[in-house]
Amino acid sequence: MKDFEKLGLFYLGRPCDPATGAVQDEPVLYDSRDLVTHAVAVGMTGSGKTGLCLGLIEEAAIDGIPVLAIDPKGDLGNLLLTFPQLRPQDFRPWIDEDEARRAGRTPDDQASAEAERWGKGLAEWGEDGARIERLRKAADFAIYTPGSRAGRQVSILASLAAPTPESVADGELLSERAGSTATSLLALAGVDAAPRSREHTLLASVFAAAWQAGRDLDLGALIQQVQTPPFQKVGVVDLESFYPAKERFELAMTLNGLLAAPGFEQWLEGESLDPATLFYTADGRPRVAVFSIAHLGDAERMFFVSLLLNQVVAWMRRQSGTTSLRAIVYMDEIMGYFPPVANPPSKGPFLTLLKQGRAFGIGVVLATQNPVDLDYKGLSNTGTWFLGRLQTERDKLRVLDGLEGAASGSLDRAEVDRLLSGLGKRMFLLHNVHEPPPFVFQTRWTLSYLKGPMSRQDIGKIQSVRSAPAPARPVDVAPGPGRQPAPSASVQAAGARPVVPPGIDQYFVPNSGDGPVVYRPVALGGGRVRFSDAKLGVSEERQVLLAAALGGGPVAVDWADATRLDVATGDLRREPQGPAEFLPVPDAALKPRNYDAWQKSLSKSLSESETLQLFSNAELKVTSKPGETERDFRIRLQDSQREARDRALDAVREKYAGKQRQLVDRLRRAETARERESGQASQAKLQTAVSMGATLLGMVLGRKAASASSLGRATTAARGIGRSMKESEDIKRAEETVEAVKQEQAKIEETVKTELQQLTDRFAADVTIDRVALAPKRGAVTVQFVALGWLPTDGRGGG
To answer: Which residues of the chain have pLDDT under 50?
Structure first.
């Protein structure tokens, strides 16, 4: 693996000198965990911001982190243009033929030139087609077009459904979601209604009342409840005084016009707008879900973005806490959605994600061309800033003000100002509170082909050009052994309720319909099965209700062929449900002593056949929860693996951190000693030279009076030469000490590098999921009853 292929680290580019543009060799590796404190990217058109952000998303996908990307401009669809073979024919569908002809080339020639350019660009940054293939295998890439059939469709109906009971219990969250949904819907309908206006208050109250009652809403039901709300007062004012019926009817007609508008049905078709299914595929693979909204009007964009963000907030609060990066929410061109003064419907959920996302491992990344678009007070806790070329001096000053506020006084404003002034294309100043000080780097070449903004026609082309997604892995989530429905009784005439001897209990299975019922007799067995395993941390009790056909042979009841009923034993009835007819009861079922034998055989059957199917991973010591699907377990396992990886990486760094600090201190002392010895040696050489010069001068002048002093100076000079030689030896020893410390440092760094690489190799492997089947232990099966059961049928003996 290449130096930049390290788990948990995003390869963003290489450091560079903003003055000369000279790029250094070592990679810029960004710790994915730093993104839980969020990031903002600011740069004018042509600064390379799109390439930076697409590269960041690509790195997240390679690391197995799902991304939900909102794309108002149409650039993010380029993430689906990945060509591992780098063949000209792969690029050909995305060549602008008019542009090629203006350049004096045929479209085929232009495709060949693009393929060559992309391959060369990748090679310059240490990348190749194999890395593109790795990206494609690491995650599923999908492009959604709400309100359009160009890409994958999403339905907004789920966004109007009742949130989870936990969300309803949180009054602040319920109020926030109801208000935001009301604001978005009114804006979409063209109603100019500010928060706390009559229209807004009424709609928010309708949403809150329905959700508190656990009821879902769709637009049809909402329109009806606007006319006849399920409450008579709004606050302390009666409904008619607050909002008269005639005016409510006008609002209902406005909303109905939205529902009846041509093409609105496209908003109601497609996949659920549920982050749980958007972030991950059916088989648990992470997904990069791009929501292209360039084709929508301003009101429709705000409506959809607000609904989507509210769904993400609700999903986030259902997750467990983590210190690792779990998912990324990215929005390109944030203008109008997070302004410094106004409060559009999207701003509330954005602020919630920025304030609370860290605790749940949700990283928010916002990008814009214009610094005026951002509420820097809302970004005060943002840990990472990517700053590219800016349009005006005013833009730079505003960015510096915002960055200074986020840096809490630790920023060298003059130095950052100097660095920003020298930025070129694809150069960004990276300010990361986790890795000071700020520095400039050049972004790497993207793995995705940057065609440019995509139209709806381009998106439709992607859907046809890209191969169909691989079928999902089969997931077995059955809580117990599969059983076929019990064989139907022979077709017999139904009649009055038969007389059953005393001592035989009878239970009627509830009927879902309201009309006359024909009941078929069955042996009905109810029991509890307990599964426990201290090593796996499992303690689960399962309620079982089986209906076995009654036969007339030697074995009147065979529990192995019984049908499992999805009915709670507490819902069984003692009397039939309304008018009913009954099929005849076999003789064996009219003998009370047979039920004791059937009860024993049921106990044995449950002990032998009932199992609890679980999934596990031995390395991480993680076991699925009872009823947890393989997909959900795989997602949870990925989170656990990411947390275990981050802990292991931290442990290695911490293991050698003390030794590295000691070596840094030793090196500092050794270099200080070397400088001291060098200074002393230089002084000694100077003194020796002076003494020798004076001695030679006296001898040349030949004065008798100076002969004695000349002799003394000669002696002093000789001693100076000896000291100089000693000082030289001291310098040599000091230099040897410095070199020895540096070698020890290099050895420690190599050890750390080796151990980190071993961890990278270990965690880079796909997670292994084993299937575990727990059988009930002795004494863990309790038969509650075996009785004569009456099963509602279709009248022909079928259940």
So the answer is: 1, 467-491, 704-705, 796-798
